[in-house]
């Protein structure tokens, strides 16, 4: 019993001794770790304090008299830049316009640029310059719209005199209300352009292709119209060309002149200038439409009867009697 007690006491002394040794070792390790952290933090602080310009890559040791600035949220060596280098970089970005905002290319922080105070005269001139800069687009747009409007008014007046005759046209415009003229004359070229955009020939051509085989008169007048079709082209083939703005504009504005000329050539016996021009316009539209329908229908037949030829090796001789259609 006494021996057991003695052994327990010795074991406890031994455990206490090793606990003290282990605690001292842990304290040493923690101290070394804290020391390393302090050293790494001090190195980082030294690296951050070390100034290096991100524009010219010069350090503080290269030019100790240069002025430095920290204009953004960047950290580390990229947060410092020479004042002169940054000024030159800002000049390249603004390109002479001091109102342009410039930001850091790394963190996108907008630079706080402080200008010296302006004198009263320069301040007023600066405000006037800004107002003119903001008003110029609106003034230019108003001048452009006004120019187009009065051009349309002039064209409408010339068209009225051309269609009705010079004297009769002047009398009609003199007797009309000025407000009516200011509103009605610009609508003449506008209605001509809108009318030119209506492709009535396409609708007639579509009806022709769909119902011409069912009409006996069409079969009698054009007996070979449908017998020549070897296939029906796909619906993806467009009936007409895309609308060209310049072509529509030119065709619409020259329409009154063409109507007047055709009216004088075909309906010279009609005494009224207005009726003669109107008949000439309808006749020109009808003749042009028929010719266009005929042209489009011939193109349709050409597409329907096309043949894709076999590939022939240029080095191999052509077999006799193997005639191929003309390639497009």
From TrEMBL:
Q: Which UniProt keywords apply?
A: Membrane, Metal-binding, Mitochondrion, Mitochondrion outer membrane, Transferase, Transmembrane, Transmembrane helix, Ubl conjugation pathway, Zinc, Zinc-finger
Q: Give GO terms: molecular function aspect only.
A: ubiquitin protein ligase activity; zinc ion binding
Show the InterPro entries listed in the entry: Znf_RING-CH, Znf_RING/FYVE/PHD
Which coarse location class describes where this protein primarily resides? mitochondrion
Indicate how the chain sits in the lipid bilayer.
Multi-pass membrane protein
Keyword set includes Mitochondrion? yes
This enzyme's EC code(s): 2.3.2.27
Catalytic function, reaction form: S-ubiquitinyl-[E2 ubiquitin-conjugating enzyme]-L-cysteine + [acceptor protein]-L-lysine = [E2 ubiquitin-conjugating enzyme]-L-cysteine + N(6)-ubiquitinyl-[acceptor protein]-L-lysine
Q: Where in the cell is it found?
A: Mitochondrion membrane; Mitochondrion outer membrane
- Name of the protein: E3 ubiquitin-protein ligase MARCHF5
Q: Which organism is it from?
A: Lymnaea stagnalis (Great pond snail)
């Amino acid at each position: 019993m006494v021996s057991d007690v003695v052994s327990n006491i010795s074991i406890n002394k031994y455990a206490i001794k090793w606990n003290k040794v282990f605690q001292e070792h842990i304290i040493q390790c923690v101290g070394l770790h804290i020391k390393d952290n302090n050293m790494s933090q001090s190195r980082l602080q030294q690296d951050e304090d070390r100034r290096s310009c991100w524009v010219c890559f010069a350090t503080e040791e290269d030019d100790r008299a240069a002025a430095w600035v920290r204009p953004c949220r960047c950290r580390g060596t990229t947060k410092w830049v020479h004042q002169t280098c940054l000024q030159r970089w800002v000049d390249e970005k603004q390109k002479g316009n001091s109102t342009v905002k410039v930001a850091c290319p790394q963190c996108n922080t907008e630079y706080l640029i402080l200008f010296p105070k302006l004198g009263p005269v320069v301040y007023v001139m600066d405000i006037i310059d800004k107002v003119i800069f903001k008003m110029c687009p609106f003034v230019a747009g108003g001048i452009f719209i006004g120019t187009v409007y009065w051009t349309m008014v002039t064209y409408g007046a010339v068209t009225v005199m051309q269609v009705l005759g010079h004297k009769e046209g002047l009398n009609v415009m003199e007797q009309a209300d000025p407000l009516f003229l200011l509103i009605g004359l610009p609508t003449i070229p506008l209605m001509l352009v809108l009318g030119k955009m209506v492709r009535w020939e396409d609708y007639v051509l579509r009806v022709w292709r769909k119902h011409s085989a069912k009409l006996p008169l069409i079969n009698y007048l054009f007996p070979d119209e449908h017998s020549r079709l070897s296939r029906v082209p796909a619906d993806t083939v467009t009936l007409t060309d895309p609308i060209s703005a310049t072509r529509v504009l030119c065709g619409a504005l020259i329409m009154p002149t063409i109507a007047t000329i055709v009216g004088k050539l075909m309906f010279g016996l009609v005494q009224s200038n207005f009726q003669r021009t109107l008949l000439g316009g309808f006749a020109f539209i009808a003749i042009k439409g028929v010719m266009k329908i005929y042209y489009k229908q011939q193109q349709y037949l050409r597409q329907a009867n096309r043949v894709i030829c076999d590939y022939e090796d240029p080095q191999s001789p052509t077999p006799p009697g193997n005639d191929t259609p003309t390639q497009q």
